[in-house]
Amino acid sequence: MVDYVKLKLKAGRGGDGAVSFQHLRGQPYGPPDGGDGGDGGDVYLIVTKDLTTLLPYRYKKQFEAEDGTRGGKNNKTGKHGEPLLLEVPPGTRVTDEEERFIADLTRVGDKVLIAKGGRGGRGNAHVKKSEFRMRNSEFKKEENSKFNMLHWFEKGEESTEIGITLELKLLADVGLIGLPNAGKSTLLSKLTAAHPKIAAYPFTTIEPNLGVMHHKGKELVIADIPGLIEGASKGKGLGDQFLRHVERTRVLAHLISVESTDPVKDLKTIDKELKEYSEELANKPQIYILTKIDIVDLEEFKNKASQFIKKKIKILPTSAISGDGLEELRDAIISNSS
Q1: Ranges of Gly residues compositional bias (predicted)?
Q2: What residues does each domain of the chain span?
Q3: CA proximity to 187, closest of 161, 213, 167, 169
Q4: Fewest C-beta atoms under 10 Å: which of 2, 75, 312, 316?
């Protein structure tokens, strides 16, 4: 998943002002009528519903808006440069090269100006009439300075260039977290209509999957966050690149597999990574879920469940295969997301 890119953006340069004169009978030069140059195009970011990743910017990293054109005769203004609109998905955070915050684009239609186009230069039509001294074809020496004044024009303003970072953070109500093979993808497929890839090996999910859960008149977006491991907050394994995706969630559904030899340790491992990444993330409401209870006998289930009871940790036993506990889990998700 492409969820972090650095771009170089350049607004359009302003067009130069024009030097032009009206043609009047009996005068080699009529009054100046050079128009202004056109303004350079601006650069904007705009949120679209048609994107879910930053894939369009995986290879192309530099973009430029159109320059304004030179002014024309008869006080005609040059053509303004076309603005450049770069589309981004909802949940895109924008910072500059110094990591200073620019914008948080969360809603479709959100739009932010990133680089302002240069202003078009003024043409010689702006020369004051009092400075215009031409009466015939003979120019007195002392009037040469005024003649030069008539050829005055402004060059267009240079464009703005800026480096920015786009960072995508998924917009989901609930984040499914846990160690690899905790059963997140299977659970997501049962709670929602999503169809993530599911297999019995670590890191099956290498990018977040989204699904929508409908329950008791409510609609919640659930994100299956790729398996976290010890050291993830420091970039180990699939790294902290995925932890950013749970920052916007309202509640975390923390999955622990009943297959684990030490399920309480697994729980604490992930909680530790959340805390080291962000105190705010660690303080989000969590639902602890014991998964895959269908694959163990009653005695082993009781043994694993008792480990949580001893630590006074409330946990919901579930099986995505048999459906046991899923109704209670849906209720808990709705309750904690309100």
Answers
A1: 32-41
A2: 4-167, 170-337
A3: 213
A4: 312
DSSP 116: P
pLDDT tens-digit readout, 187-204: 999 998 765 554 443 444
**Is the CATH number of domain 4-167 2.30.40.10?**
no
Single-letter amino acid, residue 295? I
Mean pLDDT for all residues in the chain = 84
Name the band, by pLDDT with cuts 50, 70 and 90, for residue 44.
Answer: very high
Pull the structure tokens for residue 263. 């399920």
Q: Do the annotations mark residue 321 as ligand-binding? A: yes
Q: Does 207 appear as a known binding residue?
A: yes
The closest of 184, 160, 162 to 174, measured between CA atoms, is 184
Assign domain 170-337 to a CATH class: alpha beta
139-151 core/surface letters (b: 16 or more CB in 10 A; e: else): eeeeeeebeebbe
List beta partners, residue 71: none
Return the pLDDT at 144.
Answer: 46
Identity of the amino acid at 285:
P
Length of the chain: 338
Q: Has 72 been labeled as part of a binding site? A: no
pTM above 0.90, yes or no: no
Q: How confident is the model at residue 242 (pLDDT cuts 50, 70, 90)?
A: low
Mean pLDDT score, 211-228 = 84
Would you place residue 143 in the very low, low, confident or very high pLDDT band (cuts 50, 70, 90)?
very low
**206 assigned binding-site residue:** yes
Q: What is the distance of C-alpha 264 from the center of its chain?
A: 36
Alpha-carbon dihedral sign for residues 204, 208, 326, 333: positive
Q: What is the residue type of 65?
A: A
Q: Is 336 annotated as a binding residue?
A: no
